What we know:
- The chain has about 130 residues and is of the alpha+beta class.
- It has 5 helices and 4 strands.
- Helix 4 links the parallel strand 3 and strand 4 (about 100-105).
Amino acid sequence: MPRNQPEFEHQAALVAWARLPTTRRALPGIELLHCSLNGVKLSKAQAGKAKAAGMLSGVPDLMLPVPKGGAAGLWIEMKFGKNRVSTTQADMIDALRKHGYRAEVCYEWPEARRIITEYLSQGELFDGRT
């Protein structure tokens, strides 16, 4: 019997919402929402390869690389219930904020949906011209 994985279930529900055609039409930029896969259990060999390829410990679960409202992008760490961010995750969130990103911890997918919707509804920071 598989273990209950509420953090995964909430993240998957959020991504399912983000992939809906109505959501994509309403929130331009949402199509860039993607995950870090840091929560995926890897074998020692796979973990070594991932680390060698650049995977960092503590990176939040989701990234939305769309500059809005003065932020360079939005990072979301999903948690559930009594789970809390680790020291490594807290340090990474602090570093992201110091470098101009918005970084949030969300405990249920509707909370993350609200934050993403508010974030993408802000004024533009970048106009796409180089």
